[in-house]
Task: structure prediction
Amino acid sequence: MASKEEIGMRFVDEFREPELISKTAEEIRRLADRERHYRMMEVCGGHTHAIYRFGLKDILPENIELIHGPGCPVCVLPMGRIDDGLSIAQQPDVIFAAFGDMMRVPGTLGSPLEHKARGMDVRIVYSPSDALKLARLNPDRHVMFFAIGFETTAPSTALTIMRAKAEGLRNFSVFCNHVTIIPAIRAILDSPDMRLDAFIGPGHVSTVIGCRPYEWIAQNERKPIVVSGFEPLDMLQSIVMLLHQLKAGEAKVENQYKRVVPWEGNRAALKAMAEVFELRPYFEWRGLGFISQSALRVNAKYAEWDAEQRFAVPGIRVTDPKAAQCGEVLKGVLKPHQCKLFGRECTPEHPMGALMVSSEGSCAAYYNYEHRKAAMVSLSSMA
Amino acid sequence: MCLAIPGRIVEISSDNKDSATVDVVGVRRKIDLGLLQDDKPVPGDWVLVHVGFAMSKISAEDAAEQMNTLRMLGEIDGAMQEVRGYGLEDVN
Result:
């Protein structure tokens, strides 16, 4: 039977600079205080996926626990918003356009894909500007783009709305579900059952917002945060940087992903967001509940391109199935496999909760890598 | 959706300075440069592309590394599908 370490290293061997990875893993072992248990949250769903894919857990010492954060936009979207978006698209002559990630996400009466099978005009687009192009190609229809994403994606939606206005294209609107990462981190830190030591900061969100917005986490909450890249070496180096800070009793914002993330972010992207969006007073997050000033909506200047202002929106609220413990998993209180539905009623093929839908959701990532790996190991031990 | 795909700028449109042709391992598509107003790329530059918009300029070396990361994450097919989809090429 393959040992835990061997399984981890098998993934790592495929990487550039495997020696540097081993050295960094050694350094982590050296720096981590054996008497202490470390809980570090990776905020970004891309990191969650990478951690499982690369088997990083297997090369970290057992007293470093990685908690999966709220940074998967599909996962935190409440089911009612999907129902609302689909109800607009029930109206005659409306085309529902969304990213492929949204297509399998269940609403009360099925996913967008299932609505398509029942006759709704549902289109996959890979860019918001392609939804705009659909509107140009279908002047007698209305194209509604179902927008999701954190600050990585929101500027592209904003610029697309600006282009629609500049063109005078009136058969296009956005159903805006863009959310912002900072209030979600704040909500997690405020949660009484949550104890975290440090944060691995999101990579691509930070290309837009930069590193400054995290300073309160360091200054007020006294938690170190390191903005990190997505390669195994990036994440291991970020953990080294966090351990150095924890050892020295410091709490700073550091940027491990300098090659992509400028400290000040992307000013043009922030400007586009400020031009088109305003903060909602509050927004519901799946698993986290209502969080004030945590999401964006289209402002009055661009009201004509806001699906919520143009169409009647039912404002449906749907509670998750009682047995599903998405909220506890999302806050890191439970591990994915500790949920009663995990791997039985709820699988990537038949997701009950959103954490199982997206490959960046912690349940799907856990299912796809850990669950299958455990099955493989137990099979090989039987042989 | 959260993919950041490295591409090399081939050509800036003559009629629209915010539109450029980008090459992602041989696949060429139009992308939007509007979010790089402050630091406009020129042909030959490498950029990270997210949902059809260039998000940041990167070095050729980082572009190669990013491609490797996508490969290791098992996301190359998804990334190429996304890039091929830009411009509605796959939509009827």
